[in-house]
Amino acid sequence: MMTHETDLPWEELRPQILSDLRQRRALLHRVGDDLTRMLDDLNEEADATEPRQLVARSNELTFAVRKMIEIMEKFDDWNARNGGALAGNRFDADAARAAIGRRLDRLRAAGGAGELPVGAD
């Protein structure tokens, strides 16, 4: 079977496509790890950070984490619809949300200046 975009047969393209998919999945995981580290850093800096800055940074990180989860879910759905070449590597969005929620709870507890505004988490 030949592909539409190239004259190479599918069998020759498949290893490269799988490699590209694995690289993209690894990149998404690194982004997730970086965001987790940033949340941890923010938690450690909470006592020394002005509450308004803490809320703003928390909101930015929360948005970024949600976006990353959305992208990973779309990636996993696409992968499942297209033969599941990476099916053994599904992202656990529920576990990620729970871990992020725990970090945000620690931020709230460490802030000492009151609760984060509604919608900040």
Automatic annotation (TrEMBL):
<protein>
    <submittedName>
        <fullName>Uncharacterized protein</fullName>
    </submittedName>
</protein>
